[in-house]
């Protein structure tokens, strides 16, 4: 006789979605530390092209400052990842700053609320090339204390808004309802007494939870909706007006934690000599995407609970705070403009291969590496790198051996990651080899001209 599904035990009561998201993400970052990078990749984890585009734009801004402006250029990055974005930004700025208008005056501070993440950043060897130009700081991007008002030249963040407290609203027949969550888990995945674990989970006892077998990815989220009043919500009137443009029964993320970062940036940026606040994240770029029925509004990465970013609402809140100029666009467009030609990631190219949907996961890995090798005949990174591509559990011996051979033969200055920007000319230069791998012209065309998507990587700049 087949046993039924496991009986799930509650890890707490129903609370608004942001309450549980903040709690679980605190545990995730506090127990994983730099190991979080094993669960997801971003466009700045190993690549340099987004960092270079930012350095070029920042350098142009510095050149536009008055000649008698010799004050330090104070830059803060909020949410630092593995430090690669800062390292590549600083290297590019140093290389292009022939007049000394930017790099010698720069103080770049990497800020994060996780001490474990900061320890990993401080060990990044590429940052050591810029000793004296950077520092680290243990702080929360939403905390309004600390630095003096109007002291910063620029604030930068990459994929932090999706991690911050996010409430969820649904409108139905003119009434607003808020999403509530309850975490459940199968006791069998835990080690030791459940009540002891529950106490450690409720109190976020990070040291004790680190000793547990992996459990965050086993949490099951129960959902419910309760009628709500926006009277005590941050920027409640802006949120109310925003919801008037949303159709019925569509879950809408309200990135309240991100509101705090906008307020803090507005307070800290120096009027008249500020490059603004630039944030990158993934979510809905405009109202069309927000009203897209069935689009996702959250994701789970190894137990981390992330929310899609509502860019139109952040833009409205930014204006309400006092930013005069608010600009948003797809991240690919920003990098395209810097390089002068369209860009995609390797993953996007492989996803458009005609047979990828029917391939076993390890065969997709082989295709990924073969595609990388084809592109490396033209692609040249300014930075040497070692491609890290672990094999999946269960990969057959034949594919495992082939993957090891492909990795060993990779160009040290080739494409650094599967999530790295590659240009159309680099893809076209590999056209003959890509054809042998099964790519067709229409597959390449579709990669560079994809159908409209509800969720995109986007840039928001507020000045």
UniProtKB/TrEMBL annotation:
Gene3D superfamilies: 3.40.50.12710
Domain of life: Bacteria
Official protein name in the record: SAM-dependent methyltransferase
Organism: Nitrospina watsonii
């Amino acid at each position: 006789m087949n046993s039924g599904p496991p009986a799930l035990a509650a890890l707490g009561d129903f609370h608004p979605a942001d309450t549980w998201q903040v709690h679980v993400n605190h545990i995730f970052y506090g127990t994983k530390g730099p190991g979080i990078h094993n669960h997801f990749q971003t466009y700045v984890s190993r690549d340099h092209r987004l960092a270079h585009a930012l350095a070029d734009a920042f350098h142009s801004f510095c050149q536009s400052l008055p000649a008698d402006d010799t004050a330090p250029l104070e830059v803060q990055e909020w949410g630092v990842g593995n430090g690669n974005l800062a390292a590549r930004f600083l290297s590019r700025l140093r290389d292009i700053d022939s007049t000394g208008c930017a790099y010698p005056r720069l103080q770049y501070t990497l800020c994060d609320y996780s001490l474990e993440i900061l320890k990993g950043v401080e060990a990044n060897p590429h940052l050591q090339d810029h000793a004296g130009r950077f520092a680290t700081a243990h702080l929360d991007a939403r905390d309004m204390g600390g630095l003096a008002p109007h002291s910063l030249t620029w604030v930068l963040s990459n994929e932090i808004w999706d991690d911050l407290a996010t409430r969820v609203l649904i409108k139905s027949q003119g009434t607003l309802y808020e999403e509530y969550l309850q975490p459940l888990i199968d006791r069998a995945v835990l080690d030791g007494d459940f009540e002891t674990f529950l106490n450690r989970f409720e109190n976020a006892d990070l040291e004790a939870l680190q000793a547990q077998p992996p459990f965050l990815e086993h949490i099951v989220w129960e959902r419910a909706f309760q009628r709500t009043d926006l009277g005590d919500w941050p920027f409640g009137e802006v949120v109310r007006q925003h919801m008037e443009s949303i159709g019925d029964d569509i879950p809408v993320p309200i990135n309240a934690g991100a509101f705090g970062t906008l307020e803090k940036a507005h307070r800290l940026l120096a009027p008249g000599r500020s490059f603004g606040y630039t944030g990158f994240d993934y979510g809905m770029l405009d109202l069309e995407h927000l009203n897209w029925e069935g689009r996702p509004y959250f994701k789970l990465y190894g137990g981390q609970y992330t929310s899609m970013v509502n860019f139109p609402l952040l833009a409205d809140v930014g204006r309400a705070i006092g930013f005069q100029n608010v600009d948003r666009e797809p991240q690919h467009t920003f990098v395209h403009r810097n390089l002068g030609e369209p860009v995609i990631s390797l993953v996007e190219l492989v996803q458009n291969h005609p047979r990828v949907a029917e391939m076993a996961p390890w065969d997709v890995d082989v295709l990924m590496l073969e595609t990388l090798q084809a592109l490396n005949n033209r692609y040249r990174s300014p930075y040497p790198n070692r491609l890290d591509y672990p094999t999946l559990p269960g990969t057959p011996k034949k594919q495992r051996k082939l993957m090891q051979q492909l990795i060993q033969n990779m160009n040290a200055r080739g494409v650094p990651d599967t999530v790295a920007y590659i240009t159309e000319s680099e893809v076209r230069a590999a056209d003959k080899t890509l054809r042998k791998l099964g790519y067709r012209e229409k597959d390449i065309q579709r990669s560079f001209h994809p159908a409209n998507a509800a969720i995109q990587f986007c840039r928001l700049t507020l000045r």
